Amino acid sequence: MRSSIKMYDEILKREDSRDKLALWVKNRRTSGMFVEPARDVQRIYGRIADYTVEKYSQRQAKAAEFLSGGDGWIIAHAKHDGGTVVSHESRVDKSSMTPKIPNVCTQFGVPCIGLTEMLTTLNFRFEK
């Protein structure tokens, strides 16, 4: 499993950068989990940005919000690496004016699954 360094940055910019997720992320900064976007990933991100700005032009603030964080970068990395994006977001109707990770993934042919599906795929089990 890997993530974009842009997601690392987004998590640490939150109001409470001392929450459990932020602390977990900070401890993994140099683990190789968070990768810099290679030139090809940057090109893919550019296509995602162009699509998002065009598709959601009537809600420019929502498009800008989507592009200001790590979501587009996660999709670009997955597209480049043949990966799968894991997201809590749900697909929305194509006429929605709010960009959602699963919808953008679909547009770019990137698989997107929920947390439950990921845990099932990994045969994860909770034990006492």
Overall mean confidence score, pLDDT: 87
The shape, in one word, is globular
How much helix is in the residues? 40-55%
Strand content: 5-15%
Task: Report the sheet with the most strands, covering strand number, pairing sense and barrel closure.
Answer: 2 strands, parallel
Descriptive account of the structure:
The chain has helices spanning 5-12, 20-26, 39-55, 60-68, 71-81, 101-107, 115-121, and strands at residues 3-4, 34-35, 85-86, 112-113. The chain has a domain at 39-121. A two-stranded parallel sheet has the order 1-2. Strand 3, helix 6 (101-107) and strand 4 (112-113) form a beta-alpha-beta unit. The chain is mainly alpha-helical and 128 residues long. The radius of gyration is 15 Å and the shape is globular.
